[in-house]
Amino acid sequence: MRELKPEFLISDVAGLREVFRTPNPESLSQKKCIDHLDKHARTFIARSPFLCLGTQALEGLADVTPRGDPEGFVKVLDARTLVIPERPGNNRIDSLINIVANPNVGLIFLVPGFDETLRVNGTAQVTTDPDIMALMEVQERLPRAAIVVSVKEVFLHCAKAFRRSKLWEPASQQDRSEMPSLSKMVLDQSTGAPEDAEEMAKLDAQLEARYRETMY
User: Fold this and answer.
1) What is the DSSP track for 27-46?
2) Mean per-residue pLDDT for 207-216?
């Protein structure tokens, strides 16, 4: 790990406020935080096919995972409760393990084409309640479990990050073929990828087949 110059490190709030001025308490950035899912938050969630879920292990290690499904896959149960399906995956279940140890979570909802995002912070529990999971059935398949979030903070985030990154602009789309396949990169990082291109192609095809077989 690269060592940072200690004279430039900021280690307390006072130091941060020397760099970033204290916001006006009457500004929208300060007033926008609410403690429930209002009509605008509910509509945003109903449109969203993708979110990032932030969790933290008991020992403090943070983690963020992507979650995606058809738009509206996250269900709002009431003004202070939402539920996220846990679909079949690789069974690492990092987020679920973190939640049962430390229930604090943070969510960012994205809508394709929207430069704004919706942020939700709260606490979570994991359930297999069939009544809750039935709400998230897709192609006659139920999720393995559900993450139920008790909402503490809700606010809309401005468009600056997406406008700076030009994320949705067609000209910003990159050619996926310029990097190796997922299978090859993971193998390079672990046991080593095969040198034979035909064998590597078979492994890539197997991964695509698993995607088709285990999406739901």
Assistant:
1) SHHHH--BSS--HHHHHHHH
2) 87
